[in-house]
Amino acid sequence: IPSVSGIVPESCLLIVVGLLVGGLIKGVGEKPPILKSEIFFLFLLPPIILDAGYFLPLRQFTENIGTILIFAVVGTLWNAFFLGGLMYAVCQIGGTGLNHIGLLANLLFGSIISAVDPVAVLAVFEEIHINELLHILVFGESLLNDAVTVVLYHLFEEFANFEQVTIIDIILGFLSFFVVSLGGVFVGVIYGVIAAFTSRFTSHIRVIEPLFVFLYSYMAYLSAELFHLSGIMALIASGVVMRPYVEANISHKSHTTIKYFLKMWSSVSETLIFIFLGVSTVAGHHYWNWTFVISTLLFCLIARVLGVLGLTWFINKFRIVKLTPKDQFIIAYGGLRGAIAFSLCYLLDYEHFNMRDMFLTAIITVIFFTVFVQGMTIRPLVDLLAVKKKQESKRSINEEIHTQFLDHLLTGIEDICGHYGHHHWKDKLNRFNKKYVKKCLIAGERSKEPQLIAFYHKMEMKQAIEMVESGGITKIPSAVSTVSMQNIQPKILPVERALPALSKDKEEEIRKILRNNLQKTRQRLRSYNRHTLVADPYEEAWNQMLLRRQKVRQMEQKMNNYLTVPAHKVDSPTMSRARIGSDPLAYEPKADSENLPIITIDPASPQSPESVDLANEELKGSGQVSSSPEEDEEGLVMRPKEPSSPGTDDVFTPGASDSPSNQRMLRCLSDPGPRPEPEEGEPFIPKEQ
């Protein structure tokens, strides 16, 4: 019934089915079965967690690992102690029936009910198709808070048996958190490496390849639970570690088997969990206390909202992509409780916790409220708030190339800045993986295959299978490349062409050259770091010299502008040739000026008086009284400019023309005075000239 499933989540419908089945069994007179904690933790929970860990979106998870850890660790601790403390206060003032519940019992209850449940989150969030960021934040929190829940649960359970709790016990309990969480991850990594190494030798027995994945994952979970470590952390770690190496070794059929068997197994477990929740609600022993149940529900919601708001305010100080108020609302509203809390409470011993039935009743009430009320209303709220949905898009080679390019670029920027951030350590891990780990865990040539080529082969295989399933070659999508066409269409053998035979030595030499020049494109060169740069001793002197030159030139320009009238604009070459052609006698040299250099100007050539360097013209015998009329008529003596030797400074090296008298002469030469009025016999000059 699509109209019902579009409004009510599947988990709610399964609980209703469980309630109906439990009521039917009880109506017949039989005793309904109760979800035992051993069955739940050993058989129903592992498939769901393995499915989540094996197909975990690793990139989004690692990029947001800091935010997820803060929500999972600090948020769960806040919920547990806030809820336990307030419930203890309620029990003290709640009247009869609650006074006997002590502080440790309330803290134990708070640790059970505070953790977000991964099964409930998966069931609801996969239906509303929320964006990747919010999904990985809430789901990652529900996975990683298992370590906190396990530690607090066993801690308060042990403390309840003690007559007196000392400071040493509290310190040991705090340290046990690191042992439980890191120990679970360590166990999972070991089994993941063993599974990857085993899959290297299964090329001749493809049938049992999926079995190794399930076997080693389940062994990791059982080994962690055996030592009271976090089994969920062990399962996630083993799935994440083994997947890239196992998929490179196993066949495509084995990969398909693992994928669909895990999905089917987790779906069956999820269905059984929610049905058994409904049946256990009907079959279990309940003790209803209005004050305790309503207070639990209210304080759960308040603690979740306050925890998310406070932690997000702190997290946003360090995040580049900030969590908006809409995101915070969805994270707070998505804190669903589920069967893990029910099973943990069911494990409590009646001898030490005679209020177990009341705890179970309150926990079932909270589970029903979060799954039914929050689970049913979160989809309309997401639409109402216009929260970004998940973009259903197929990954492409183009996207993969740009992703890898940006990773390399950001790693290089971090190296140059001397900042060892997320991309730096990710690059180090990738290098270590390619250099050592892949050679040990992946068989054959696949260990040396670049990541982009491996992704390309995977896409080609996927597109080929989709094309065959859709009806063959006639319905080929445009995105399929010619290579996948060649993989499916019968190949037409080309006409054989005689190729020159290469000797083994020559072939090995060519391969060596290509390997050295193409494979090692990212050889490690000297790191360019702002902390290790050597200062140039001459750099400061050059800068000072350039500044002095610039100041001197600016000063000369100001003095010239202040002391002189602007010089007349020099004629263009065309006008100069016209002037010379009309009156050549005005430019002919004197007959008695034998000692002077003669400037010959061809009217047809582009050379013009513009090329005359006035800075090197000086009057012969300037500053002296002329001795004869002949010397007076000699006029200007033009001397060629001496080229400056290389390495000398034109500004600070004094030349022959730097004396005060020469500078005064230059100012006079640059001021031609008022222009005479044009006479009738003067050659034609345009008006604008």
UniProtKB/TrEMBL annotation:
Residues 479-566 form the Sodium/hydrogen exchanger regulatory region domain. The keyword S-adenosyl-L-methionine does not apply. The gene is Slc9a1. It comes from Crypturellus undulatus. The chain crosses the membrane at residues 6-25, 37-56, 68-91, 103-124, 136-156, 168-198, 218-241, 262-284, 290-316, 328-347, 359-382. GO terms for molecular function: calmodulin binding; potassium:proton antiporter activity; sodium:proton antiporter activity. InterPro entries: Cation/H_exchanger_CPA1, Cation/H_exchanger_TM, NaH_exchanger, NHE-1-like, NHE_CaM-bd. NCBIfam families: b_cpa1. This is Sodium/hydrogen exchanger.
